[in-house]
Amino acid sequence: MNTGAQTPKSGGLSVRDVNLTFTPVNRPPVVALDRLSVDVQPGEFVCVVGASGSGKSTLLRLLAGLLEPTEGELLEDGALIDGPSTSRAMVFQRDNLLPWSTVRANVAYGLTLQGVKRREAWAAADERLRAVGLGHVGDSYPRELSGGMRQRVNIARALAVDPRILLLDEPFAALDAQTREIMSSELLRIWNQDRKTVVFITHQIDEAVYLADRVVVLSAHPGTVKEVVDVPFERPRNLSLKREPEFGRIVDRIWTLIEKEVRGSLGLETADLSTGASDAPAS
Fold first, then answer.
1. How much is the pLDDT for 262?
2. Per residue in 169-178, pLDDT tens?
3. Are 108 and 122 in contact (CB under 8 A)?
4. Do residues 221 and 52 make contact, with C-beta atoms less than 8 angstroms apart?
5. What does the alpha-carbon distance between residue 183 and residue 181 come to, in Å, rounded to a whole number?
6. 227 vs 219: CA distance, rounded Å
7. Is the Cβ–Cβ distance between 173 and 141 less than 8 Å?
8. DSSP assignment, residue 105?
C-alpha cells in the first residue's frame, strides 16, 4: 500500500515484443533481447534483475531512447519512444560530475542546456539538493564529497529537469555495502516525495525487493522476461524489513529463478543445485 505521496500525472511505460540484435563487423549477430514485453505504471517503482548478459542495461538504454529496437516498440504514455526526451532522465553507475564545476552548477547543468536562466537554474538546483539532503554543499566541488554524496548529487541532477521517469542503471554499484544500504533508504525517501516512475537496474536481489513494487526477472542469452514478482510490503519501508521472513522468501524465490544462469555465466554449469541451500547474494 502506497501512502503519503502525490500521484504522478503520467509516466507510464510499455515495452511491446521488443527484439534487439547487434550486428558486429565480421562476427555473427548477437540477439540481446528477444520478444521482451513489460508494462510500468505511472508512479511505479520497478526493479530489473537477471544474470550477466540478460540485457538489463540494454533495456534501460532503449527506454531512454539511446538505442532503437530491431523489432517491436517502446511507448511512454502511449507515444512512441524514438529518441531521448527531457521526460526521461537516466542515472548511470558512475556519477560523471564535472570536476571543475561546483555541486550547484553540476545539478543545474541540464537546465542550463535547456536555456534556463542561470539564476532560475541555480535556484532549482538548490531545491533539489535540499531534497536529497545536501543543501549545504552547493558551493563544494565533487572531489570534496564522499561516494554516497556524489551519487546523491547525481540523482539531484537528474531530478532537476523534473522528468516524469527516472531510469537508474546500478547507481550504487561502486559503493561499499554499508553505504549502499543507506543510499537505498535515501532513494526511497527521495522517491516518496513525488513518486516519479522509476526503472532501477541491479544485480542485488535484496536491494530490488527492498526498493520495488515489482521485480522483473530477465532470462539471459537472449534477454526476455522470465517472471514478474510482486512485492507486497507496505510503504514507507525501512531496512528492518530485510529481517522479515517473507522478505527472505521473496529473495530466495528470485534467486532460484536466475541461479542456474548466474552459475553458467561463471562457467559453473555442472554445479550441484540439488542441496536446497540458499546462497542468494545480498548487498
1. 87
2. 999 888 888 8
3. yes
4. no
5. 5
6. 9
7. no
8. H
Measured between alpha carbons, how far apart are the two ends of the chain, in Å?
A: 25
- For the stretch 99-108, pLDDT in tens is 999 999 999 9
Give the Cβ contact number of residue 214 at 10 Å. Answer: 18
C-alpha cell at position 120:
532560475
| Grid cell at residue 277 | 541451500
- Starting at the edge strand that comes first in sequence, how are the strands of the sheet with 30-40 ordered? 30-40, 13-22, 71-76, 79-80
Residue whose cell numbers read 532503449: 62
Residue 273: all three cell numbers together: 543445485
Amino acid at 34: D
Q: Look up residue 135 and give its amino acid.
A: G
Q: What is the pLDDT of residue 7?
A: 47
Residues in the chain: 283
Q: What is the distance of C-alpha 19 from the center of its chain?
A: 21
The interaxial angle of helices 177-191 and 147-160, nearest 10 deg, is: 20
